[in-house]
Design brief:
This protein is of the alpha/beta class. The protein has a single domain, classed as 4-Layer Sandwich (Metallo-beta-lactamase, Chain A), CATH 3.60.15.10. Helices cover about 25% and strands about 20% of the residues. It is built from five helices and eight strands, in the order H-E-E-E-E-H-E-H-E-H-H-E-E. It has a six-stranded mixed β-sheet with strand order 1-2-3-4-5-6, with helices on one face. Strands 7-8 form a two-stranded antiparallel ribbon. Strand 5, helix 3 and strand 6 form a beta-alpha-beta unit. The protein starts with 5 loop residues before the first helix and ends with a strand.
Length: about 170
């Protein structure tokens, strides 16, 4: 009898934590699942890595709302894997930020990665029907990801008086 791929056999619930790291930084984690970060600035919130689906992102949004009512204006995508980017549309963020390399990989491998990861990680993709339609139908573009080239590779966000975050967006 063939053994199931480790991820396909991982269907049980995981204990989710939303842990305060500093007064303005939290981590959302679940026993080895992909992690998301939350940074609370003076006027807004940044989420780092969006979750696998918009439905999955709702739990993170609820937890953010327990600690602040500030708007989630920024979502940072650290890399192209579907399990980290496809929930981005849930936040209603003004800015979805990624390096040029990440954007290129989303365009090049996005639909293929989506199909692969949904099959391998069914527990993480609960609510998969909430993912914007073009990805599910095989279009190479992730609908809802509007890319505008940034004027520079380093970007300062969450300005305000006390909290600034400088992002090094990597190679073009």
């Amino acid at each position: 009898m063939a053994r199931a791929f480790a991820s396909t056999a991982d269907v049980g619930p995981k204990r989710i934590v939303f842990e305060k790291l500093t007064p303005n930084a939290h981590v959302y984690s679940a026993e080895g699942d992909p992690t998301s970060g939350v940074v609370i600035g003076d006027d807004s919130v940044m989420v780092i890595d969006a979750r696998a689906t918009p439905a999955a992102a709702q739990d993170l949004i609820r937890r953010v709302r327990r600690v602040t009512r500030k708007p989630i204006q920024y979502v940072v995508l650290t890399h192209y894997h579907a399990v980290r980017v496809l929930g981005a549309s849930a936040y209603g963020a003004d800015h979805i930020i990624a390096s040029e390399a990440t954007r290129a990989l989303i365009r090049e491998r996005g639909a293929q990665d989506y199909k692969s990861e949904v099959g391998r990680f069914p527990r993480l993709f609960q609510g998969v029907e909430t993912v914007p339609g073009r990805v599910r139908t095989g279009d190479r573009r992730y609908r809802g990801f509007h890319h505008r080239p940034l004027p520079r590779r380093r970007l300062t966000v969450l300005g305000g008086n006390r909290h600034r975050i400088r992002l090094d967006l990597g190679a073009k």
